[in-house]
TrEMBL record:
Keywords: Acyltransferase, Lipid biosynthesis, Lipid metabolism, Membrane, Phospholipid biosynthesis, Phospholipid metabolism, Transferase, Transmembrane, Transmembrane helix. It holds the Pfam family Acyltransf_C. One of its GO terms (biological process) is phosphatidylinositol acyl-chain remodeling. This is Phospholipid/glycerol acyltransferase domain-containing protein. The chain crosses the membrane at residues 95-122, 134-156, 422-444. Residues 167-289 form the Phospholipid/glycerol acyltransferase domain. One of its GO terms (cellular component) is endoplasmic reticulum. Coiled coil: none annotated. Signal peptide: none annotated. Belongs to the 1-acyl-sn-glycerol-3-phosphate acyltransferase family. GO terms for molecular function: acyltransferase activity.
Length: 464
């Protein structure tokens, strides 16, 4: 008897005789929310019809549904993952998470960032200072939801952050959501207002999320160095000129670890006589060496943080997994801090330095996944956070409270007041048009700074 047949036989044994008027509950393994098949129709003699439906048909249909649900449970026990159709039934957590973040970013970009847009034309540095702090209030929301509502556990080991220091963060790209999960680490060990991320340029067009990331001056790239170099240069020089500290997150691997990306990485390794990796991809070092060199020359770099991220249980690879409620049970971060004075001076040596870090990551992750699935083997204990547990708890509580009330309140204001409706429409039009005309708020911000300082290119003197 095959595995599927055995599962079907077990499931059929679990289906009890179902009387109309009873309630049958079926809870899928490893999920939180049970789903229930109910019948509220009174029991009547066979042959009668209730609201046009034959009672026997309803009984048989109810038993069939319960059979299907039990088959789903037995299949998951035997084969692992739930089929997508079954998982959608229990994805309320994912829908709640995505919608809460979306509406927060949508209304936040319009009603919290929108009023400060004119300041960009007067003082870009003040505009940047204010926006960084507004963005940080929203960044606490996914942290609060992941830990408080969804029960995600975060473990940080290795070196401590120096609060407020300026750094480049390099991290392996295990899933497409690593950048968001890192906020759980930074909220305890650093300041969220300092973080900047390199993202795909296509993301800036997403309403809400994209508008907020533009206003946050995230660096959007096309993954073609000849197209990205000048933009990197302008953005980094701008932050150096306005003396705005930042912690810039880079993924030298360029993409998340999948079967296809691993195949391409191994082909690259084979063609260049390099070691084949299993837990990381071979890094692309051009962007990393350029950013470190540029920040160092602009005196806006204190350290490089090399972070290794690992997921000991389930690994939600894409946004779709989150939408289906597949959140990581645990996330482990291992931090190595390298002061800027310990980094190699030349780009060639810095490139080799980055390759060495990835060799270490491969060995570290191999020991992690083949061992006890923690970083205790490194000999470095859990890092004490720079913020107390009470402070973090209060911030998470206030974040959930504020953003839960903020979006409905803005909807109410839009409904009640015509002036708010006109403001709402005008700001949306501004967000859409400025991207088509200028390419994004961060581009417009750079242009305003150049115009006010009469510079055709930022840091022109440095480039002479």
């Amino acid at each position: 008897m095959g595995r599927f047949a055995r599962c079907l036989q077990k499931a059929h044994q679990h289906v009890p005789a179902t009387d109309l008027g009873e309630s049958r509950s079926c809870t899928v393994a490893n999920t939180v929310q049970p789903f229930t098949v109910r019948s509220d129709v009174q029991k009547v003699p066979s042959g009668r019809h209730v609201r046009g439906l034959d009672v026997n048909w309803r009984r048989q249909g109810l038993e069939l549904v319960n059979l299907v649900l039990n088959v789903v449970m037995e299949l998951r026990k035997a084969f692992g993952e739930l089929p997508v159709a079954a998982r959608i039934m229990v994805s309320w957590r994912g829908i709640y998470f995505i919608l809460t973040l979306f509406w927060g970013s949508f209304f936040g970009s319009i009603f919290m960032m929108g009023p400060f847009l004119p300041l960009m034309f007067i003082s870009p540095s003040w505009y940047r200072w204010i926006n960084n702090r507004i963005v940080a209030t929203w960044l606490t929301l996914p942290v609060a939801l992941l830990e408080t509502v969804l029960g995600v556990k975060v473990v940080i080991t290795g070196d401590a952050f120096v609060p407020g220091e300026r750094s480049v963060i390099i991290m392996n790209h295990r899933t497409r959501m690593d950048w968001m999960f890192l906020w759980n680490c930074l909220m305890r060990y650093s300041y969220l207002r300092l973080q900047k991320i390199c993202l795909k340029a296509s993301l800036k067009s997403v309403p809400g999320f994209g508008w907020a990331m533009q206003a946050a001056a995230y660096i959007f790239i096309h993954r073609k160095w000849k197209d990205d170099k000048s933009h990197f240069e302008d953005m980094i020089d701008y932050f150096c000129d306005i003396h705005e500290p930042l912690q810039l997150l880079l993924f030298p691997e360029g993409t998340d670890l999948t079967e296809n990306s691993m195949t391409r990485s191994n082909e690259f390794a084979e063609n260049n006589g390099l070691q084949k990796y299993k837990y990381v991809l071979h890094p692309r070092t051009t962007g990393f060496t350029f950013v470190v060199d540029r920040l160092r020359k602009g005196k806006n770099l204190d350290a490089v943080h090399d972070i290794t991220v690992a997921y000991p249980h389930n690994i939600p690879q894409t946004e779709k997994h989150l939408l289906l409620g597949d959140f990581p049970k645990e996330i482990h971060f291992h931090v190595h801090r390298y002061p800027v004075n310990t980094l190699p001076e030349s780009k060639e040596d810095l490139q080799l330095w980055c390759y060495k870090r990835w060799e270490e990551k491969e060995e570290r992750l191999r020991s992690f996944y083949q061992g006890e699935k923690n970083f205790s083997f490194t000999g470095q204990t859990v890092v004490p956070p720079c913020k107390s547990d009470l402070r973090v708890l209060v911030v998470k509580f206030l974040s959930i409270l504020y953003w839960t009330l903020f979006s409905p309140t803005m909807c109410l204001f839009i409904y009640l007041y015509s002036l708010v409706r006109w403001y709402f429409i005008i700001v949306i039009v501004i967000f859409v048009l400025q991207e088509r005309i200028f390419g994004g708020l961060e581009i417009l911000e750079l242009a305003c700074y150049r115009l006010l300082h009469k510079q055709p290119h930022l840091n022109a003197k440095k480039n002479e």
